[in-house]
Design a protein that fits this description.
The complex is a heterodimer of chains A (about 375) and B (about 375). Helix content of chain A is about 50%, strand content about 15%. With about 375 residues, chain A is α+β, with helices and mostly antiparallel strands. Chain B has about 375 residues and is of the alpha+beta class. Chain B has three domains: about 80 residues, Acyl-CoA dehydrogenase/oxidase, N-terminal domain (Butyryl-Coa Dehydrogenase, subunit A, domain 1, Orthogonal Bundle); about 110 residues, Butyryl-CoA Dehydrogenase, subunit A, domain 2 (Beta Barrel); about 140 residues, Butyryl-CoA Dehydrogenase, subunit A, domain 3 (Up-down Bundle). Chain B has twelve helices and ten strands. Chain B has a four-stranded mixed beta sheet with strand order 1-4-5-8. In chain B, strands 2-3-7-6 form a four-stranded antiparallel beta sheet, with no helix packed on it. A two-stranded antiparallel sheet of chain B has the order 9-10. Classes of the chains: A alpha+beta (about 375), B alpha+beta (about 375). Bound molecules: flavin-adenine dinucleotide. The site of flavin-adenine dinucleotide has 21 residues of chain B, from strand 1, strand 3, helix 11 and helix 12.
């Protein structure tokens, strides 16, 4: 029994934190999110060279053959600085390929994913706030040798930056992932509150694809990919939550009112303590969930629901209190607290909000 | 990161399980002589004071093994490993660290053998959370100290033979943490008067104690004069792992789920009510958070990293669970939920209604939630003291 990170994982964390400080500080994140393309090719290249894009891809496909517990080290540390690179999308799409693609497809696609040469993303559900196979409404029907697609996938993460997209559809034989290149589809930005997490709709209506480009996906595989998405999102919530707590905590030590640092008032310090309690708790649950992905998959569903179910509401509150405890300065666009609050709004419904996850815990727990 | 146990740890768990299978009869078959036999057997196994050094009669048990032992015992709803609870929790460790050779010889074996029950005389009427400000007075007079003052909320005082007593030997100090001295005092010493206090659940577990010209021999002082605060703090630091609590809470959650399955709300099964489902899931998440927080902190301890005050995180979770779970059970059961044990319609023999009155044991007894939040904000987050 050992619930701690290894030496290597700690070094990886340091590496990512250094990268964020030196190459991708918040000022740069802001610049990117104000520009037309939030994607920074040079930064992506650096992340690729550091090996972060192929962490969970097996070595025979050009990756490092590590586990999700290693991946979340990167996701957490990158999210401390709200890294806008599509690292989570790349990881989820490669997990989808590993889960649903044929051996030949893995061999032909994954090396380019691991090296960062190809940017890939995954789009699952079409209905808002509904995690269920029936919430996939886009479709593929037989057409000549291949298939013709119908529908429009809303709010696909990082779709504008992606070279390839894996999009869930209802196929003739049940659920499937349509593998598409960016030139085959029409991608339209769908800006949300959080500009560090660019989303876009992907119009696939009338697009024809070859027989091999529709990867069959079982209900269980869809659930698995959704759960992996939940782990990735929660890991980012750990990093971002820790960052806004740190920001607020140091502000509370410096800001003087009524002759004392505001952190001396219990209305402030107890709120900080509660933020810490919540962060610690969803952090522990997140680490456990990430461990189950590779080492105890039968526990994954419940573990993710615990982690994301806790984090969804807790991080939202941490975002609000992080801004609120700053007073008016926290409300300003120039101050960084607001960026984290926006991330908390973005993260809350991703791969299931707390209602979804808590209901699933009740079901899995026998109710 | 690895949640699997090593072969040694697994075989230790197996050993505990087989021991329990052989030696723990079901509740209804446990007769009067059972507890005595049980205590002797766990003592012979070396499981009382399991983590204590061998030289004091412990087993030098590792942190993980200790957690396994606690977990299995609490899963099996076994009686405690020794009835001298406070003796095992902090009096014993305090004596091992600060006691004289005579004190070690005199007190440690009786704690391990469940022969002597200890109580803890810290709180006073005017000094609870602000413990270091205590005023109970001890004056050196030749070969003994003369103690005068009052303690209160002393759990187990009505049936304990000994008390670990915190007094003030010096009133002219700049820091209130100085001038405090700790003593080991027999409860039958002349001048000690115990008056039990009834709590809202109807029990008389704690008491107030009056000390009038009580003579305490110098050899009963624990640690040096004026060092009592240090003795107290390091002794309390022995209360760490929350593994046992987690298994207890999990068992309680299972009972709660059974109650949900047997309950209705507005004529429909309660298990279909979204609010009920969400509430139960929230309890389950909190208990799991306690479990994995606990394991992370345990790992830190094993690696020799200092724990600051992380256990306060789990204490806060536990406090809210203690209050909310029983309350929720009562709410589910309507008026019948309000009946205490013995009531015609009492639900689960009044466990929940009693629990709804008993939460202060945990929520106030070990330091209140406000104090836990102060600890986190000040010691972990580095905010200035109040
Ligand atoms: C069931 C039970 C068993 C106990 N057993 C023992 C025992 O065996 N031995 C023993 O010595 N004591 C024992 N105690 C006493 C216990 O340690 C104290 O009750 C506890 O420390 C709180 O002290 P108090 O009751 O004097 O409350 P106070 O300290 O007067 O607190 C009253 C309220 O004020 C709040 N408060 C106090 N200070 C602050 C602050 N700085 N900031 C914010 N809020 C604050 C508290 O949170 C609380 O809500 C027991 C108590 C209970 C309930």
């Amino acid at each position: 029994m050992n619930f701690g990170f290894t030496e290597e994982q700690n070094l990886l964390k340091d590496q990512v934190q250094r990268f964020m400080k030196e190459a991708c500080p918040l000022s740069h994140v802001r610049d990117l999110s104000n520009s037309d393309s939030t994607f920074d090719q040079a930064l992506w290249q650096q992340a690729a060279e550091l090996g972060w894009l192929g962490l969970t891809i097996p070595e025979n496909f050009g990756g490092l053959g590590l586990k999700w517990i290693d991946l979340i080290v990167v996701l957490e540390a990158a999210a401390e600085g709200l890294c806008p690179l599509p690292i989570a999308s790349q990881a989820l799409a490669s997990t989808a390929i590993l889960t649903c693609a044929s051996e030949a497809q893995k061999a032909s696609w994954l090396p380019a994913v691991a090296s960062g040469e190809a940017i890939v993303t995954l789009g699952l559900y079409d209905e808002a706030n509904w995690i269920d196979p029936a919430a996939v409404t886009a479709s593929a029907s037989t057409h000549g040798e291949g298939f013709i697609l119908r529908g429009k996938k809303p709010f696909v993460n990082d779709a504008l930056a992606a070279d390839y997209l894996l999009l869930a559809v209802q196929g003739p034989q049940g659920l499937a992932l349509a593998a598409l290149g960016k030139d085959q589809v029409t991608v339209t930005a769908q800006p949300t509150i959080d500009s560090t997490k660019p989303m876009a709709s992907v119009d696939i209506d009338g697009v024809e694809i070859g027989a091999d480009d529709l990867l069959p996906m079982s209900d269980e595989q869809l659930a698995y990919l959704t759960d992996c998405g939940g782990v990735a999102t929660t890991a980012e919530m750990v990093g971002a939550g820790a960052a806004i707590l740190a920001l607020t905590n140091s502000y509370a030590k410096e800001r003087i009112q009524f002759g004392k640092p505001i952190g001396q008032y219990q209305g402030v310090k107890h709120r900080l303590a509660d933020m810490f309690v919540d962060l610690e708790s969803y952090r522990s649950l997140c680490y456990f969930a990430a461990w189950t992905v590779d080492d105890s998959p039968q526990e994954l569903a419940k573990a993710v629901s615990m982690a994301k179910g806790y984090a969804s509401d807790a991080f939202a509150q941490i975002g609000i209190d992080g801004v609120g405890l700053h007073g008016a300065i926290g409300f300003t666009a120039d101050y960084d607290a607001q960026l984290y609050l926006k991330r908390s709004k973005w993260a809350r419904p991703m791969y299931g909000d707390s209602d979804y996850h808590m209901d699933r815990i009740a079901t899995l727990g026998g109710l | 990161m690895d949640f699997d146990y090593t072969p040694d740890e697994q075989s230790f768990r197996q050993e505990v399980r087989s021991f329990i299978a052989e030696n723990l009869p079901p509740k209804e078959k446990r007769d009067k002589s059972f507890l005595g036999t049980w205590l002797e057997k766990v003592r012979a196994k070396g499981w009382v004071g399991f983590a204590w050094p061998k030289e004091f009669g412990g087993s030098d048990g590792g942190l993980i093994e200790q957690a396994i032992l606690k977990e299995e015992m609490s899963l099996a709803k076994a009686p405690p490993l020794g009835t001298s609870m406070m003796g095992l929790a902090w009096v014993g460790p305090g004596i091992m660290e600060y006691g004289t050779e005579e004190q070690k010889k005199k007190f440690i074996p009786d704690i391990l053998d469940s022969k002597v029950t200890w109580c803890t005389g810290y709180s006073e009427p005017n000094h609870g959370s602000d413990l270091a400000a205590i005023q109970c007075k001890a004056e050196l007079q030749g070969d003994h100290y003369l103690v005068n003052g009052q303690k209160i909320w002393t759990t187990g005082a009505p049936w304990s033979q000994w008390i670990i007593l915190l007094t003030r030997t010096d009133f002219n100090v700049t820091s209130k943490h100085d001038g405090i001295t700790c003593f080991l005092v027999p409860m039958d010493a002349p001048g000690v008067e115990v008056r039990p206090i009834q709590n809202m659940a109807g029990d008389k577990h704690f008491a107030e104690i009056f000390f009038t010209d009580v003579q305490v021999p110098v050899e009963n002082r624990l640690g040096a004069e004026g060092e009592g605060w240090k003795v107290t703090v390091s002794a309390l630091a022995n209360e760490r792992s929350s593994i046992g609590e987690v298994t207890q809470l999990q068992a309680k959650l299972d009972d709660l789920k059974t109650l949900v399955k047997n309950s209705k709300r507005q004529g429909k099964p309660a298990s279909e009510d979204p609010k009920v489902r969400r509430t139960v899931a929230k309890f389950e998440i909190k208990i799991s958070a306690m479990k994995y927080n606990g394991l992370r902190y345990l790992t830190k301890q094993i690696k020799g990293e200092p724990l600051t005050s992380e256990t306060s995180v789990n204490k806060l979770h536990r406090a809210s669970l203690e209050i909310e779970m029983d309350d929720f059970a009562i709410e589910l059961s309507g008026q019948a939920g309000l009946q205490l044990r013995g009531g015609e319609e009492a639900v689960d023999n009044g466990t929940w209604s009693k629990g709804a009155l008993n939460w202060p044991n945990v929520v106030i007894g070990g330091g209140t939630p406000n104090i836990q939040r102060n600890i986190i904000a000040e010691r972990i987050l580095g905010q200035p003291k109040d």
